[in-house]
Design goal:
globular; 3 helices; binds flavin mononucleotide; alpha+beta
């Protein structure tokens, strides 16, 4: 099947690659913001690098570009509501309102996250309608809980091996 003619099939095929759910945050001269993301992965151990993919229209992207850093908060299964908030288009300046967070290396990290990382932006690479951000990991930490999962276009909270 031609991918060009069937973008739905493209979505379905890659939607079967189950992932966790994270919130990418940043804070800069224009304020703080963040977005729900699952297109993130560890890229290199030495040096420690991660990559994250931003829709070109994502309002979080210029904040990351301007600040030169971003945070990753991996969501726990009891943080489904946060996935909704950060996937929404509420004003960027309001996304963190009422959401417990602390600042690590100048980047907001969500309270209760299953794990987190702070990255210094190393490179932005064009990738079609997305932009790939590569970051040097400068701080990491672990929280408690079970993961929130994304599979076949839906959130899943239960999991077992
Ligand atoms: C489960 C899930 C995963 C997502 N993953 C990404 C992603 O990896 N990259 C991206 O740019 N948008 C992703 N999105 C969409 C953004 O969260 C959404 O466009 C958001 O409104 C962007 O916020 P912003 O414009 O405030 O930056 C995802 C949404 C959901 C629900």
């Amino acid at each position: 099947m031609s991918v060009d003619r069937d973008p739905e099939l493209f979505r379905e095929v890659f939607g079967r690659f189950a992932t966790g759910v994270a919130v990418i945050t940043s804070a800069g001269p224009a304020g703080a913001g963040g977005m729900t993301a699952n297109a993130i992965c560890s890229l290199s151990l030495d040096p420690p690098l991660v990559l994250a993919c931003f829709e070109n229209e994502a309002r979080t992207l210029p904040i990351v570009r301007d600040s030169g850093r971003f945070g990753l908060s991996v969501l726990a299964s009891d943080q489904l509501h946060l996935a909704g908030v950060f996937a929404s288009k509420v004003p960027e300046s309001e996304k963190l309102d009422g959401v417990a967070h602390s600042f690590e290396h100048g980047v907001p990290i969500l309270g209760g996250a299953l794990a987190w990382a702070v990255c210094e932006l190393r490179e932005l690479i064009a990738g079609g309608d997305h932009t790939i951000g590569i970051g040097d990991v400068v701080a990491i930490g672990l929280g408690e809980g079970k993961p929130l999962l994304w599979y076949a276009g839906r959130y899943h909270a239960g999991w077992s091996a």
